[in-house]
Design goal:
Layout (H helix, E strand, L loop, with lengths): L1 E8 L2 E10 L2 E7 L3 E4 L5 H6 L7 E4 L6 H6 L4 E2 L1 H5 L8 H8 L1
Parallel strand pairs: 4-5
Antiparallel strand pairs: 1-2, 2-3, 3-4, 5-6
């Protein structure tokens, strides 16, 4: 099942998405510029093979809900996210604010 719900971050609205798969759930919070995601996100692939796309993204591990994702520290981020001041260890919600 796929669920999407708006999430209020300050005075802005972003989209939270969960995708329930067998034995795992994908958790994503997205803005018009970039996104953060659960541990299924392959940051190395985005940085290496898809570098020309300049994807702004971050990965948090050990999260199961949208709320967890917003509260968790990012484990890794893309090079383009780093250029925006989004760094590993930053709280997911803080990264989303920088993407707005």
């Amino acid at each position: 099942m796929i669920n999407a719900k708006p999430i209020q971050i300050g005075d802005r609205t972003v989209m939270g998405i969960t995708v329930e798969l067998p034995k795992t759930t994908l958790v994503i919070v997205t803005t018009d510029k970039g996104y953060i995601m659960c541990g299924a996100l392959d940051v190395a692939l985005l940085n290496e093979r898809l570098r020309a796309r300049n994807i702004i993204a971050g990965r948090a591990t050990g999260v199961r809900t949208l709320e967890d994702l917003l509260e968790a520290p990012l484990e890794s981020v893309t090079h383009t996210a780093e250029e925006m001041g989004i760094v590993p260890g930053m709280k997911g919600s803080d990264a989303i604010v920088r993407m707005l």
